[in-house]
């Protein structure tokens, strides 16, 4: 069965992005251009533009288009930026970053999930795929002008924040008090703080559980 992906992409932009404060025209243009269906399992291609956490396999899911769009809008990537995507999954968000920035490192620890969109990422020419623990970031490519943590996490490891350039920006979905909040922060003079700007449903990333405090 064939699908009109172009029409589905247009509908996503009109109904899921323009109605939810995704108002950076460069982000909207990129999301209206990059074929999301190239980054989902073939048997789920009909759901590529659905307003849902799309299963990628092994418990991992692709973020809602709205969450991806809001995070990228806050990051405000420029054509000169060097970007790290943590938890790149099948590569969709990394592909969007590649259209908005100069160069991208797509970090993913699950080889099977990374393979879903590997060919599409490779064809872009400005994305380096990296394999390793998500919580450690990718120091070999640091410093980064911007870091996108592409999913919901309970905390932001210092190892990742340390890889930001001075003045560098980071956006993520942070789990706080049982709620998922989209947050944005900037590193200045060695210090970093993040502020929530929206509540959203976002796919969880493994390994970012908050360390449990000992109770005596």
Describe this structure in words.
By secondary structure, the protein is of the alpha/beta class. The chain has one domain (5-199): Vaccinia Virus protein VP39 (Rossmann fold, 3-Layer(aba) Sandwich). Helices cover 25% and strands 30% of the residues. It is built from seven helices and nine strands. Strands 5-4-3-6-7-8-9 form a seven-stranded mixed sheet. Strands 1-2 form a two-stranded antiparallel sheet. Strand 3 (82-86), helix 4 (92-100) and strand 4 form a beta-alpha-beta unit. The longest helix has 13 residues, at 5-17. It is globular and about 50 Å long. It starts with a helix and ends in a 17-residue tail after the last strand.
Largest sheet: 7 strands, mixed
Distance between the termini: 60 Å
CATH homology superfamily:
Vaccinia Virus protein VP39
Provide the residue-averaged pLDDT.
94
Strand residue content: 25-35%
